[in-house]
Amino acid sequence: MIRQGILRICSLHPETRVLLLNRCTSATAVQHDLKDVRPFEEIPGPKPSENDPTFLTGIGNLANHDFNTLSQALYKNYGTIVKLPGQGGEKDVVYLYDPQYFETVFRNEGQWPVVAFFDSILKYRHELRRDFFKGVVGVIAQGKQWHDFRTTVNPVMMQPRATKFYVGPIDKVAKEFIQRMKDLRDKNGQLPDDFMGHMFRWALESICLIALDTRLGCLQPNNKPDSETEKFIAAVQLVMKAMLVIDMPPPLPPAEKEALWNQMVDALDYFNEVGMKYIKQAQDRLMKRSPDAQKDMSVLETLLVRNEDPMIPFVMALDMLLAGIDTTANLTAKAAHFLSRNQDKQEILYEELKRILARKDQEITANNLEDMKYLKACLKETARISPVFPANFRQTPTDMVIGNYQIPKGINLILDHKVLCHLEENFPEPKKFIPERWLKDGDQLQNAHPFVYLPFGFGPRTCIGRRFAELESAALIANIFRNFRLEHDEDLKEVVNVMSAVGNKLNFRLEDRS
Prior knowledge:
globular, 20 helices
């Protein structure tokens, strides 16, 4: 009976398999013959040298924080499980490159999964500004504190109808960005070298609409440098950079870490000041609305109504802003870039969009967005080739056996799914942009392990803003390629400090569509 059930699951489309596995409340732990289990100290990996603190000679300089280069080299040189020794008092880190290891970790992470790293925001909210946050740390919390927060916000954040509420407003922001693109292009139809910065502004404008119920004005062409909008943009960018560099291995020198931490604190203080202002404005608007008018409320309004403590919706809004700007901007920009470099795929997408959106300015609705199957496949293929976060991060909740090695409790794990997505054994022609892999009638995914492709994480700590990110990306890509044909001369370059960002100058050439 069990074997038949497993065979039925394995015959399904990989995404369906993941959804079914995700619903499982228990899993059979991998059994090991204890006499064959090897000690933690024997896990393969580079050995530190007393005379060379950047001991990865020939693999990559620890100081450059190039996650991709380091991780790929570790896999190539040492295999599917690698131990990177800690430095400067830091703990060892274990890198994993096998979907079965991933499944072992996720199936045995316990009631309160611990996400490794990202300690700086916790320190800021839980210690430095604890009087302000009053114990509400948000989705980055650990243990019961994390569980209680997710239990409170999940019924609002994870509902499909919550996303549908924003389809029209998000489409409107996307259409304003199309006009911005028209204004930015030169007489040859080429966008400026700093176009990625405009993508960042689009993402911030979109997520502020969702998280704070406000239009911040990021797409206005003439914002003054000292305006609230420009200062807020700068603060967000600094926080994202600092968080990824401070928290992730390898460690910064103490003086550099302290200086960056102080800058991060100043930016977070301003971030809180502006965010709280808009939360209070939403509260005031809500109090003036009649009971009948409260039937169709935004995410922020719903959280405010359901929680007596305004700090809960406030912290949820902050978490959405921190997690939903760089990530969404880069995923969407990468999708546009891959389509610009694969004209045949771009034409297939255009034909789909032209069929669904008869006019270039036609409104995107929840219904016609659902029909854009090829567009969604393009986004999934983008996240396979160049995921914004190439790895998931966990900490062992107890002593575990992974890959026949003993892993003690409290060890930080890096589960690199990008490496797996670039292996021929998992995805034929892995370097090629082939959205057809993700269509219902596609046949290339049947052999892919369901734990290979996890760009939004897995289990109870899966990305809480996934639906909103997918909506924003889909709306903008649909509008861009319904209006323009894009060309670009370079292959994608990445800058990876744990989060993978576009490294190119995205000066696309635009040609108007009919």
